């Protein structure tokens, strides 16, 4: 047969073999030879032709499109929340008495404060001169002030509260009696160790620590003594009823300390950061080694607990809210959801900071996420500042801070421990040691705010501040074209994945879908979730970028099945490393599954067939949870049949989502 008469793929095989172009050229030709012989045999016997070997696929680089040429623009501020107050930089009036939403009023109504709390914290507009660096509550936009501060120098946060309380106890009596004080002298259980309680029983200690960080350390911002002030964490001391008061007093004392220090030098205003800890329970990790689907807290319980904390902090005079020491991103998402609810009910623009904790040198949270996946999971809340704290010393944080600095779109902070704990649980780094360890962050221009965590004291903060003064803060990254950014335990920028031809291609594994796999259906009907996980693992091993989960069947409790499958799946690293696509015909089923996912998922699907109002309601909920969404080409009249109808319905859906719901356009997927 003439060379020119050969099929194109045979020509390629011949050239590879003759010129030894590829290591597998001989094996490829042997496979093709076996195929040709099988074809001859099939013809002789009158059998159907065998399947032709695929051969090696080309692996082309990603194809470039016109939109790849959109040039990034310099950022003037971090990404803004979509609320009107944030978009317009509306100053917080600090008149909380005007906030009368029934949910907020109900929390205040059950407050345990001995006297009615003062919840308005506005200042006369002429208290200090106008314009930066001065700041007056009620007159100036804190969002604008922080942007000016964080872009002009590296701002200083405070250090450890627990370390300072321990140091106080070494020099002064601080036993059970002091923890209880007169207020709780007959309390039903021991309360020593409940540091947040000291804001009520020993306010002079807590305010004194605040002032030390402000005056000795030179902190611009101080965190409130409210790390454990949620109904969940206070359950250990049977003090759930006192949560509003604990947060109010923790913030009030900080407010007083900041105002007193600011009055001495109005050119350096000090701000109160409402500290919101992770609680002592986790939504992503099972407390039972026998049952991976077991949990000791739900998303809704976390939201309720955090919401009550937020109300107390804001009424006490907090300027900023910080969700900190995040070892499980699902808890953080619940806290951010609660903050979002408060901001929606109040109409305020409150800057939100978020701080994750990577537990060891793997660079992952306790619930398994990388730093990049953690950020991708919470960026929908539009935090003004994101960073890392606790668990590690500055030296051990360096590679992870560098990675975050390359991907975080807002300001970046670090407040590390004073090294790693010693054999006695203490921290050995001196102020100078800790300042030197933080120096690499300043030299590389990675930070906008720095402070200290466990083991740090006002002298540590002072030394870090002095070290930072000769360095410039991190520049906000340029703003480019928005891209869909999903996450499981690892992050996934959808645009970065493509097929062998270089075309955009997201591989969604459909074998954990009752409609897509008879085997999976049988396993789910029999309750064999363990074997069902093997199907999910195999899909990831075979290259699925996303795992679709669908348990729709008339003979199955979809709500229970979706939740159980997701709760088990998130504990399997080989499965949960990739994002999930939660797929159901009933919205309540995908919403239930969403509440157990710490990563950023895709929801499949919503459409206008439910009517415009319900469509907007569902889309708003999904936006609050931070997921991407598949939109079907359905409307009130039914499914689109023609090209014209598909375009019309998709455009209408897009316009509603983007212009009315303010849904991120990059997170919309159309299924026409």
Briefly summarize what is shown.
By secondary structure, this protein is an alpha/beta fold.
What does this structure look like?
With 672 residues, the protein is α/β, with parallel strands linked by helices. The chain is 41% helix and 12% strand. It has 23 helices and 18 strands. An eight-stranded parallel sheet has the order 1-8-7-6-5-4-3-2. A six-stranded parallel sheet has the order 11-12-13-14-15-18, covered by helices on one side. A two-stranded antiparallel ribbon has the order 9-10. Helix 9 runs parallel beside helix 10 (243-264). It is elongated.
Helix content: 40-55%
Unreliable residue runs: none
Overall strand count:
18
The rounded distance between the terminal residues' Cα atoms is 48 Å
Order of neighbouring strands in the sheet with most strands: 1-8-7-6-5-4-3-2
Largest sheet: number of strands, sense, barrel closure: 8 strands, parallel
Q: Output mean pLDDT.
A: 96
Query: Can you tell me the overall shape?
Result: elongated
What is the radius of gyration computed over CA atoms, rounded to a whole number of angstroms? Answer: 29 Å
Please identify the structural class as seen in this structure: alpha/beta
Strand content: 5-15%
Q: Enumerate how many helices there are, as a single number.
A: 23
């Amino acid at each position: 047969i003439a060379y020119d008469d050969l099929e194109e793929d045979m020509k390629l095989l011949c050239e590879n073999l003759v010129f030894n172009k590829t290591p597998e050229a001989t094996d490829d030709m042997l496979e093709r030879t076996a195929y040709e012989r099988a074809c001859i045999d099939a013809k002789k016997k009158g059998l159907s032709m065998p399947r032709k070997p695929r051969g090696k696929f080309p692996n082309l680089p990603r194809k470039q499109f016109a939109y790849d040429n959109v040039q990034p623009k310099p950022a003037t501020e971090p990404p803004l929340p979509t609320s009107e107050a944030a978009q317009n930089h509306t100053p917080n009036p600090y008149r909380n008495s005007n906030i009368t939403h029934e949910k907020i009023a109900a929390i205040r109504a059950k407050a345990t404060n001995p006297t009615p709390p003062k919840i308005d914290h506005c200042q006369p507009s002429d208290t200090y001169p106008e314009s930066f660096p001065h700041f007056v509550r009620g007159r100036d936009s804190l969002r604008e002030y922080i942007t000016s501060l964080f872009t002009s120098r590296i701002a200083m946060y405070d250090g450890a509260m627990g370390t300072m309380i321990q140091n106080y106890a070494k020099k002064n009596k601080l036993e059970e009696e002091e923890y209880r004080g007169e207020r709780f002298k007959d309390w039903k259980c021991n309360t020593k160790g409940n540091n947040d309680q000291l804001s009520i029983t020993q306010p002079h200690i807590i305010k004194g620590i605040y002032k030390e960080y402000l005056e000795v350390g030179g902190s611009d911002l101080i965190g409130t003594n409210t790390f454990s002030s949620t109904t969940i964490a206070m359950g250990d001391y049977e003090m759930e009823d006192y949560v509003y008061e604990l947060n109010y007093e923790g913030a009030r004392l900080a407010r007083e300390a900041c105002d007193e220090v600011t009055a001495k030098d109005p050119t350096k205003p000090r701000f109160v950061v409402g500290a919101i800890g992770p609680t002592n329970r986790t939504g992503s990790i099972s407390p039972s080694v026998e049952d991976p689907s077991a949990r000791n807290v739900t998303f809704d319980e976390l939201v309720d607990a955090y919401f009550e904390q937020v109300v107390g902090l804001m009424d006490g005079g907090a300027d900023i809210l910080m969700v900190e020491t995040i070892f499980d991103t699902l808890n953080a998402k619940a806290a951010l959801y609660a903050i979002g609810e408060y901001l929606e009910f109040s109409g305020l623009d409150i800057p939100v900071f978020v701080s994750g904790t990577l537990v060891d040198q793997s660079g992952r949270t306790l619930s398994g996420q990388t730093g990049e996946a953690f950020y991708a999971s919470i960026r929908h809340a539009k935090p003004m500042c994101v960073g890392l704290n606790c668990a590690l010393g500055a030296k051990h944080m360096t590679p992870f801070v560098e990675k975050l600095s390359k991907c975080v779109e807002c300001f970046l902070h670090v407040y590390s421990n004073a090294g790693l704990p010693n054999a006695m649980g203490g921290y050995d780094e001196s102020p100078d040691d800790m300042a030197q360890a933080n120096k690499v962050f300043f030299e590389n221009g990675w930070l906008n705010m720095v402070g200290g965590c466990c083991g740090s004291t006002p002298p540590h903060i002072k030394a870090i501040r002095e070290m930072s003064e000769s360095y410039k803060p991190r520049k906000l990254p340029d703003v480019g074209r928005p891209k869909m950014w999903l996450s499981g335990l690892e992050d996934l920028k959808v645009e970065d994945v493509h097929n062998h031809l270089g075309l955009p291609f997201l591989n969604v594994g459909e074998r954990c879908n009752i409609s897509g796999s008879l085997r999976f259906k049988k396993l789910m009907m029999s309750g064999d979730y363990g074997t069902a996980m093997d199907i999910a693992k195999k899909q990831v091993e075979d290259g699925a970028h996303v795992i679709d989960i669908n348990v729709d069947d008339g003979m199955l409790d979809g709500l229970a099945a979706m939740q159980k499958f997701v709760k088990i799946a998130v504990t399997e690293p080989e499965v949960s490393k990739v994002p999930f696509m939660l797929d159901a015909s009933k919205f309540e089923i995908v919403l239930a599954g969403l509440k157990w996912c710490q990563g950023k998922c895709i929801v499949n699907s919503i459409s206008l067939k439910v009517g415009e109002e319900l469509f907007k309601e569902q889309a708003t909920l999904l936006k609050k949870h931070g997921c991407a969404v598949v939109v079907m080409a359905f409307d009130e009249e039914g499914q689109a049949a023609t090209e014209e109808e598909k375009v019309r319905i998709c455009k209408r859906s897009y316009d509603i989502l983007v212009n009315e719901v303010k849904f991120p356009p990059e997170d919309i997927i159309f299924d026409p």
